[in-house]
Amino acid sequence: MKTEKEKMLAGELYDPFDPQLCRERERCHDLCRLLNATREDQKQERRRLLADLFGKATDAWVQPPFFCDYGRNIVLGTKVFFNFNCVVLDVAPVTIGSNVLFGPSVQIYTATHPISAAERRKWLESAKPITIGSEVWVGGGAIICPGVTIGDRSVIGAGSVVTRDIPSDVMAAGNPARVIRPLPPEASKGA
User: Fold this and answer.
1) In 82-121, which positions are buried (b, 16+ CB within 10 angstroms) versus exposed (e)?
2) In a domain, 137, yes or no
3) What is the CATH number of the domain that holds 42?
4) Is the CA virtual torsion 149, 151, 153, 156 positive or negative?
5) Is 54 helix (H, G, I), strand (E, B) or coil?
6) Is residue 135 in some structural domain?
7) What is the DSSP string of 94-148?
8) What integer pLDDT is reported at residue 181 of this predicted model?
9) How many whole angstroms separate alpha carbon 52 and alpha carbon 56?
10) What domain range includes position 121?
11) How many domains is the chain partitioned into structurally?
């Protein structure tokens, strides 16, 4: 028999009030609270808290306030920047490449709920993983919905709601986000 955490990570319906999951979320929320209370000059303390939050050392720059559910389900490449007030509901894995920029108030949601009201009354939920490639820029206020993949070097316009996969090397924007145009070839060349 699977634990509720195993069901959660497998994308199956699970009980979010399971005691183990509640303890893990509480631990994460405590770490976020401590991180959000740090000052700019407390770089070593921030690094320590981020390593504890994500489960390994990282060079990510996280501008408080920052919020997530578990932390350990977030996998970061190198040089990732989260601007003020970002939220990551990492019920399923959130994989983020290297050199990725998130504007203020970006929200990344893996959590989802049944469409049926009768099913929702059971207070079960599920999740779908999110993958964000390398060298992506997500504009402020964008929302990334469950199960989405964003390809390398793409740009997501501010305020966009990304409900489906976005290929590499494009500019996407809107609600729902759609590809506006391909990015010029020089935009995808390394510096």
Assistant:
1) bbebbbbbbbbbbebbebbbbbebbbbbbbbeeeeeeeee
2) yes
3) 2.160.10.10
4) negative
5) helix
6) yes
7) EEE-SSEEE-TT-EEE-EE--SSHHHHTTT-BEE--EEE-TT-EE-TT-EE-TT-
8) 95
9) 7
10) 4-182
11) 1
Q: Residue 183 has which token pair?
A: 């990015």
What is the crossing angle of helices 19-36 and 43-54, to 10°? 160
**Mean pLDDT, the chain, integer:** 95
- At 70-89, the pLDDT tens digits run 999 999 999 999 999 999 99
With respect to residue 188, please indicate whether it lies within any of the assigned structural domains.
no
Helix/strand/coil for 42: coil
pLDDT at position 17: 97
Q: Summarize pLDDT for 19-63 with one digit per residue, the tens.
A: 999 999 999 999 999 999 999 899 999 999 999 999 999 999 999
**Interval 131-160 mean pLDDT:** 98
Asked if residue 150 has pLDDT above 70, the reply is yes
pLDDT above 70 covers a percentage of the chain that reads 97
What is the reported pLDDT for 190?
57
- Residue 187 within a domain: no
* 53, two tokens: 């939050």
Cα–Cα dist 99/151, whole Å: 13
Distance of CA 109 to the CA centre of its chain: 6
**Residues recognised as catalytic:** 113
